Amino acid sequence: MVYISSETEYPAKMTLNTRTLDHIVHLTPPGSVEEASRQFRDLGFQVLPGGTHAGGLTANALVVFDDGVYLELISFTHPASYYPPGSPERKLRDTHTWAQKSPGWIDFAFLGNGSHKESESISKTINERGRQDGSGVLYDPEQDGGRTRPDGQILKWLISGPQSDRRGVLPFFCGDVTPRSLRVPGEPPSNTVHPSAARGIAYVRVLANASSFDAVSRQLTSVIGKKSISSTDNQVVWELDTVHKQHESPLLRLEVPADEEEDGFLQTSSSGIYEVAFRIKGEKRASQTTPYGKVSWVPIESN
């Protein structure tokens, strides 16, 4: 199958699946993973322990859904001031990808393939698409990453993210070297049962200024490798895949701000992710917030 962008068809060598939603990242202040876990439990999510990432700079907890997507509740283990100025630890802390991010929904990941083979490189595939369709999108080569779970299990993966200031507006890719089931504890099935009746992701809503809207839209098309399902002057929507397709596919919605509050978000946020919506069994309910990010609920149309 050849995936089609908004303007062109990609050759067979560029048809790796690069549109499977893997996880969404929510950042809270340093040392606050336990507090963030409580906040998400109060919203009706079951929160599972995560662990400490390689290098010890960050720790996380997880919220896993039966569509295979999960939330990563993450915080730095210490503020930057904890590390002596000029020390190697301080340099790593200051140059971390998320070091300058404001708390809230800061990033989202698509599923990579965990391969260092040039022919299977996610970053190379996307960069070739970007050259072909003129979007200018550029992803860094895959880098090794990992985390140690509380039970001592070591997890390994490959990460590739967009260059420049597009991180958190364009997704990064996480491809498992060790089995994904170790990273995403969907078993036993009770791990994905939530008091809120959330079953999976309905949509991720990303905001962009009118001046950058067209450029971001073109770059997202290069990343996803498939044309949008709808497009207007102020909204473009793509359909994504999930590891376990249980219900309707999640959507990625790129929009320009609709009111002063959303415009203010773009003025103060270091990410474009304004809202994450969850599919639930039951009736529609009002939107809620974490202390830092918007949460919405969308009823499942069919069970």
From TrEMBL:
Name of this chain's protein: Glyoxalase-like domain-containing protein
Basic and acidic residues composition bias: residue spans: 119-132
Spans annotated as Disordered: 119-150
UniProt xrefs under SUPFAM superfamilies: Glyoxalase/Bleomycin resistance protein/Dihydroxybiphenyl dioxygenase
Domain Glyoxalase-like per the UniProt entry, residue ranges: 21-221
InterPro entries associated with the record: Glyas_Bleomycin-R_OHBP_Dase, Glyoxalase-like_dom
Origin species: Galerina marginata (strain CBS 339.88)
Top-level taxon of the source organism: Eukaryota
